[in-house]
C-alpha cells in the first residue's frame, strides 16, 4: 500500500485494487483566512485527481474544496459516501459533476472490487462538523489504515475489532476560534490557549494509545494564516498559548510521552507500507526537519505569492444592496419559530455588532431567541456578543450560507464576548440555518434529552454514569477526577460531582453519587 501526502488532511491511498483520494483541499477557506500549510497548490493535481474513489469526510471547507473538486478530481471516481442524516454532502458533490456514489453504512465493512475493503464511521451529532464528521478505515492484502482526520469518536473500539491497524492518521492541532477571538486580557488568552493546546495533545495521545498502530501520521492541521490581519495566529511567535502547533512540535511533544513511531508527510511525500504493514519507508520532496526549521521563510514567501488572490477575494465580499436586518429577519425568524431545544438552550438574545466599511459606525442587531425575532439592539443585557465587519454578514446573506460556523466563525474574522459559561447551542443554531438542518438538530436533541444512561463506573469515592452527558464519550477512558471535579478529556468538559452541574457549558448535568 502506498500513501501519498497531499496536504492538510488529504492523502491518496494506492493499492493493487484501486486508489482513494481523501479530502483534497487547496484553495483558501473560511473567508480566505485558512490556507493549507505546507503549500500543496503546486502538486500535480491532474495526476493525483485521476483516482478510482473519492472520500470527503465532511463538509468543513478545509476538507470539502468545491473549486478544486470540480476542476481537478475525475468525475469517473466513485464517491465513498458516509451515512449522514442529511443529503447535503451528496447534493453538493452532484452539483460539482460527480455521478457515481457508494452509500456506506456506518460501522459496516464493505468489500469493493479487487478485495479492497472500506468502512466509514459516521458521527452525526449536531456538534460533529456541519451535521456530520467521519473516519475512513481501509484494508487491502492484510494491510489496514485508519484515516481518522479530525473526527472525534468516543472510542476506537469498532476499528480495533477489525484487526490490528498499521497506519493511523489523526488530527493533533487546533481547528477552532477559541480563545483567540475572545475579548480577554492577553494573559488570560494565553492561559486558556495553553490549556486548549494541552487538551489537544492529551486527546491525541489517548487515541493513539487506543489503537496502538505501528505508525502514527499527524495530519489535519494546522492551517496557516496569510492575511496580515490574522498573521499572529501562526505558531511562529513563541506564544505558548497558540493552539496551532505544527508537525515538528508534534514530534517533540510525542517524544515526551515515549512516542517513536511518527511519520510526518509533506505534500508530495510518499510512504510505502510493506511486510504486512509492519514496515514503512518514506521519501520526501525536501527534508522534514529542514522544512520546518525554515517555517517563517516559507510562510513569508507564501504570503507574498498568495496576496493577489487574497485581496481579490476580500474585494468580493461587499454587497451594499443587501438589507442586512430585513434579510436576517426573513431567514432566521421562521427557524426561531420552529426551534424548541436550540432556542431554549440559547435562552436569551445574541447580539451582532456590524462594523461599517470605513470602521466608523456600528449597527447592532439582536437575534432574540426567547422573543423569536430578529430586531435592532435595544440596549438590553446579552450573554453572547459578536463583532465583525458588515461585509462578511452581507456576503453570507448574498450566498445564502446556511452554516455560519463553517464560514464566519472558523474564519476568526470576528471578536466575541460572553457572560458565563460556554453555550454550545449558540453555535449549533448558527450552523443550522436551513429547514433540513434545524429539524435534524431539534430531533437529535429531543432524542438525546430523553435517553437514559444507566451504566455506572467508579472513580475513587464516586459512582458516575459511564458516558459523558456532552457527547457520550466513555468516561472510563477519557475521565479524570481531581477533588470533586470530573473532566472529560475528549472535549475538556468539567462537572461538579456533588451537584452534577456542568462547569463548562449550559445543560448536560451528570449523574454522580458519593460512595458511603
Automatic annotation (TrEMBL):
Annotated ranges, domain Rieske: 464-516
GO cellular component: cytoplasm
Cited InterPro entries: RibonucZ/Hydroxyglut_hydro, Rieske_2Fe-2S, Rieske_2Fe-2S_sf, SCP2_Rv3818
UniProt keyword terms in alphabetical order: 2Fe-2S, Iron, Iron-sulfur, Metal-binding
Keyword Signal: no
Molecular function GO labels: 2 iron, 2 sulfur cluster binding; metal ion binding; monooxygenase activity; oxidoreductase activity, acting on paired donors, with incorporation or reduction of molecular oxygen
PANTHER family named in the record: N-ACYL-PHOSPHATIDYLETHANOLAMINE-HYDROLYZING PHOSPHOLIPASE D (PTHR15032:SF4)
Name this protein carries in UniProt: UDP-MurNAc hydroxylase
Organism: Actinoplanes lutulentus
